[in-house]
Amino acid sequence: MTAPHRVAVLIVDGFIPFELGIAHRIFGIARDSERRPLYEVVTCTAGAPGPVQSDSDVVVQVAHGPEALETADTVVVPASHEFGPVYDVGRLTPELADAFRRIRPGTRIMSICIGAFALAAAGILDGRPATTHWSSAEHFQNLFPQVKMDPGVLYTDDGDVLTAAGVASGIDLCLHVVRRDHGAAVALDVARRTVVPPHRDGGQAQYIARPMPDAEGPGTAATRAWAAERLAEPVTLAAMARHAAMSVRTFTRRFREETGESPGQWLLRQRVEHARTLLESTDLPVEQVARRCGFGTAQSLRAHVQATLGVTPTAYRRTFHGAA
């Protein structure tokens, strides 16, 4: 048994307690098949150990200073409402600059919400894709034009540097990392124990302009559940509309209002996610995986997995199968 992966969560005054808790909860309860912890999570601050004031009346007594970053395998930087020059002009404070210098080359670095401003100010995001909270995205782009800001997604993954849009998307990002590190079974166990969805794709929209359907008539949730149970079948838009007892036009409109996606986009994403789970957790031939996910042929499966994940099904399985 190797030592647990060490995660250091770097906070400063004005931190958001919810975002601090995300990393401790998601990484902290991840276990292997023998229920041994897979991560060790510590909280540190850029200054001397001691009390750190949150953006509320919560004060955290932090036991570690920036030296904890020197031994971290992953560093997580949540948002702070008191980033000062980091947020205002894109410049690190002396304490934060010293803290970032302590991070070893090759360490995985993650941000949540406007924590991305600290990463960008440190030069970590130069030339890389990143996201932050939608309300701060334009300001971010003005301060850091060298960063490939995508203001519409939940999170970005550029290998050793990852960013989450904010608040709940930090949960999505941390679960994504657990899945990447240890496979779907471990991530599913963490999600189940945390009572959150096991996976939301990083490219999903941060928010939906009209999050609630029209008051008249039923929504599409029951039809989504019905379709998700029939991924191996040729589920059509017309069939989904009939199940919801709506016209195709009305169904399509309400579906997009509730999910932010078209029915076709949603169905494709469900099929790719099902394929990921089967590739990770079974030894089924690629042809059978394709049929069970509704892609029909191995060629179709390869095309969609390659387009979505950037790798072939075989390469994905080689990386993630049996990772736990």
From TrEMBL:
Keywords assigned by UniProt, alphabetized: DNA-binding, Transcription, Transcription regulation
Short name of one Pfam family: DJ-1_PfpI
Lipid biosynthesis as UniProt keyword: no
Signal peptide location: none
Alphabetical list of CDD domains matching this protein: GATase1_AraC_1
Classification via InterPro entries: Class_I_gatase-like (IPR029062), DJ-1/PfpI (IPR002818), Homeodomain-like_sf (IPR009057), HTH_AraC (IPR018060), HTH_AraC-typ_CS (IPR018062), INH-QAR (IPR052158)
Residue span(s) of domain HTH araC/xylS-type: 221-319
Ranges where the record places region Disordered: 200-219
Keyword hit for Transcription: yes
PANTHER family linked: ARAC-FAMILY TRANSCRIPTIONAL REGULATOR, HTH-TYPE TRANSCRIPTIONAL REGULATOR RV1931C
Name under which the protein is recorded: GlxA family transcriptional regulator
Organism of origin: Promicromonospora alba
